[in-house]
């Protein structure tokens, strides 16, 4: 039961996240998917997910990826997610596990640079190439040694030196969804989330630009909100 931990943490009558019941398609020699979901939960983080053997291996990266090879980004491995999760953008109700706003920040395909992915994962040193809309080139996820008190050893996400490496901050530069072009605040507005909480996951400079140029605000999307929970109606 590869998704047991994923399902145990969630109540599917409360959240619109996928249950992951569909049998994973048999592995042909097709490209493997990757997705990065920007997630304003208790704290902001970026969930980096790599398709492997019918699930999405997942790491929560608090500061998000960096193109600067001198920067090492902490990446905590979390439970495997179903492949359908790659399409999830929206709101997890606040009372539920991971409550908050989720954005599809990047997506594309990944290729291992090691011939044996399982061995690389077991060793804690996975070199891979990304072909996404924002993330490209060669990267590594490397597991550190657990320190005292740590139950699980953190990993580090690091950019390799290649023609894609640079020192610009991709999370500041490209803060919008690759599927809907929305900011977190716009996703929260459209889908009944906590707008104020979502907004502090967006770069302040981007929010300021929108206030000065309201035409840049993504048009409101209708009809996607599921009434699985009810906010208090104004009594006046
Ligand atoms: Mn998350």
Q: Can you walk me through this structure?
A:
This protein has helices spanning about 5-10, 115-125, 170-175, 185-190, 195-200, 205-210, and strands at about 30-40, 45-50, 55-60, 70-80, 90, 100-110, 125-130, 135-145, 155-160. The chain contains six helices and nine strands. Strands 1-2-3-4-9-8-7-6 form an eight-stranded antiparallel β-barrel. With about 240 residues, it is of the alpha+beta class. The longest helix has 9 residues, at about 205-210. It is globular. Manganese (II) ion (MN) binds next to strand 2.
Mean pLDDT: 90
Identify the overall geometry. globular
Beta fraction of the residues? 25-35%
Q: State the end-to-end CA separation.
A: 51 Å
The hetero compounds bound to this protein are: manganese (II) ion
Strand order of the largest sheet: 1-2-3-4-9-8-7-6
Number of beta-strand segments: 9
Structural class by secondary-structure content: alpha+beta
Main features:
236 residues; alpha+beta; 6 helices; globular; binds manganese (II) ion
Q: What is the compact description of this entry?
A:
This protein has 236 residues and is of the alpha+beta class. It contains six helices and nine strands, in the order H-E-E-E-E-E-E-H-E-E-E-H-H-H-H.
């Amino acid at each position: 039961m590869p998704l047991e931990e994923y399902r145990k943490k969630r109540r599917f009558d409360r959240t619109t996240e996928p249950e992951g019941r569909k049998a994973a398609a048999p592995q042909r020699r097709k490209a493997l998917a990757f997705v990065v979901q920007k997630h304003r939960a208790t704290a902001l983080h970026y969930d980096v997910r790599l398709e492997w053997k019918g699930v999405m291996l997942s790491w929560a990266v608090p500061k998000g990826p960096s193109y600067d090879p001198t920067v090492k980004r902490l990446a905590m491995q979390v439970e495997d997610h179903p492949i359908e999760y790659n399409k999830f953008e929206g709101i997890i109700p606040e009372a539920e596990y991971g409550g908050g706003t989720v954005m599809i920040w990047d997506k594309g395909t990944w290729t291992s640079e090691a011939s044996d992915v399982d061995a690389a994962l077991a060793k804690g040193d996975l070199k891979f190439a990304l072909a996404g809309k924002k993330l490209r080139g060669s990267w590594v996820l490397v597991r550190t040694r657990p320190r005292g008190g740590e139950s699980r050893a953190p990993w580090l996400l690091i950019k390799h030196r290649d023609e894609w490496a640079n020192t610009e901050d991709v999370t500041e530069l490209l803060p919008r969804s690759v599927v809907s072009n929305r900011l977190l605040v716009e996703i929260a507005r459209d889908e009944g989330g906590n707008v104020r909480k979502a907004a502090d996951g967006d770069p302040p400079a981007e929010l300021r630009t929108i206030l000065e140029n309201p035409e840049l605000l993504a048009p409101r999307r209708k009809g996607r909100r599921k009434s699985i929970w009810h906010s208090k109606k104004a009594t006046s």
